[in-house]
Model the fold of this input.
Amino acid sequence: MEKSMRELLERSYEGDKVIAYIESLEADNMLLTRENKALADESEMKCELNHELSKALDKACEELSKTDKKN
Done:
Protein backbone atom coordinates (compact mmCIF):
# COMPACT_ATOMS: atom_id res chain seq x y z
CA MET A 1 0.00 0.00 0.00
CA GLU A 2 1.33 3.44 -0.87
CA LYS A 3 2.58 5.54 2.04
CA SER A 4 0.36 8.56 1.24
CA MET A 5 -2.76 6.38 1.02
CA ARG A 6 -1.88 4.70 4.30
CA GLU A 7 -1.45 8.10 6.00
CA LEU A 8 -4.87 9.24 4.74
CA LEU A 9 -6.50 6.04 5.95
CA GLU A 10 -4.86 6.31 9.36
CA ARG A 11 -6.45 9.73 9.82
CA SER A 12 -9.88 8.67 8.57
CA TYR A 13 -12.73 7.15 10.57
CA GLU A 14 -12.04 3.44 11.15
CA GLY A 15 -8.94 3.74 9.00
CA ASP A 16 -7.16 1.10 11.05
CA LYS A 17 -9.85 -1.41 10.12
CA VAL A 18 -9.53 -0.53 6.44
CA ILE A 19 -5.75 -0.86 6.63
CA ALA A 20 -6.03 -4.25 8.33
CA TYR A 21 -8.50 -5.40 5.67
CA ILE A 22 -6.25 -4.23 2.83
CA GLU A 23 -3.23 -5.93 4.40
CA SER A 24 -5.29 -9.10 4.79
CA LEU A 25 -6.24 -8.97 1.10
CA GLU A 26 -2.62 -8.40 0.13
CA ALA A 27 -1.55 -11.44 2.18
CA ASP A 28 -4.31 -13.55 0.60
CA ASN A 29 -3.23 -12.38 -2.83
CA MET A 30 0.37 -13.35 -2.11
CA LEU A 31 -0.68 -16.83 -0.96
CA LEU A 32 -2.94 -17.33 -3.97
CA THR A 33 -0.16 -16.20 -6.30
CA ARG A 34 2.17 -18.80 -4.78
CA GLU A 35 -0.50 -21.49 -4.99
CA ASN A 36 -1.19 -20.59 -8.62
CA LYS A 37 2.53 -20.87 -9.43
CA ALA A 38 2.70 -24.26 -7.71
CA LEU A 39 -0.33 -25.48 -9.64
CA ALA A 40 1.13 -24.22 -12.91
CA ASP A 41 4.41 -26.01 -12.17
CA GLU A 42 2.53 -29.21 -11.31
CA SER A 43 0.51 -28.95 -14.52
CA GLU A 44 3.69 -28.49 -16.57
CA MET A 45 5.29 -31.54 -14.92
CA LYS A 46 2.18 -33.64 -15.61
CA CYS A 47 2.18 -32.51 -19.24
CA GLU A 48 5.83 -33.49 -19.63
CA LEU A 49 5.18 -36.85 -17.98
CA ASN A 50 2.18 -37.43 -20.23
CA HIS A 51 4.33 -36.68 -23.27
CA GLU A 52 7.02 -39.14 -22.12
CA LEU A 53 4.41 -41.82 -21.40
CA SER A 54 2.87 -41.29 -24.82
CA LYS A 55 6.27 -41.73 -26.49
CA ALA A 56 6.91 -44.90 -24.47
CA LEU A 57 3.48 -46.27 -25.41
CA ASP A 58 4.10 -45.53 -29.09
CA LYS A 59 7.44 -47.33 -28.90
CA ALA A 60 5.87 -50.34 -27.14
CA CYS A 61 3.12 -50.52 -29.77
CA GLU A 62 5.73 -50.33 -32.53
CA GLU A 63 7.68 -53.20 -30.97
CA LEU A 64 4.50 -55.28 -30.64
CA SER A 65 3.69 -54.58 -34.26
CA LYS A 66 7.15 -55.76 -35.33
CA THR A 67 6.73 -58.93 -33.22
CA ASP A 68 3.31 -59.65 -34.76
CA LYS A 69 4.73 -59.28 -38.30
CA LYS A 70 7.52 -61.78 -37.52
CA ASN A 71 5.03 -64.39 -36.30
Remarks:
- The chain has a mean pLDDT of 89.
- The chain has two helices and no strands.
